[in-house]
Amino acid sequence: MRRPGGAEFAPNAYVFPGGSVHSDDHSFADFSRGAAVRELFEELGILIARLPGGRFARHRECVALRQLLGGGEPWLSALKRMRLSLALDRLAFLTRWITPEPMRRRFDARFYVCRLPAGQVEHPQEGEVVDWRWVAPSDAVRSLEMVFATQRILESIAPEPDAARLMRKLRRRKERPPILPRIVRTESGFEVVVEVHDAAPEAAFVE
What we know:
Shape: globular
Oligomer: single chain
Number of strands: 7
């Protein structure tokens, strides 16, 4: 999704849906996954949740949940009223990045992959999302304006064209240590150095 030009972080850039952890997210066994599901719904209207019996939420449940939230119902209360449980198990951990120390704003972000539930359509948050699109990772890195971490993450999954196979691979893999980029000064300017697991360090120029 594309952030508005006046945004404090990554203005005009395409980013993954996401945000900060809220107090309600700690009500779940995995607060980071809980935050990811909530932010995905708030920003793009996609809900990774189940009804009693195991059926995934569809468009009508998404509409009803938005109406409750729009009327002032708190997140946890609205989920309970609709008998929805977040499907945290449907999120596969991809990677974790921590912003370099010299940066003014730092983030410790976990990134997950999930499948779009059947029967749902996007409902972008007005004022937070100015454009959104479904695009192959390989096409995104060639055509979209993105921050460094977003591009590198897409590059890491671009070689796998099959989404189902990617999900299976990620579910079998243990969560890896966070990626800690470093900003270093060189003769040509500043560069971001990323320590890649099981590989030599890579570098990319930062404007």
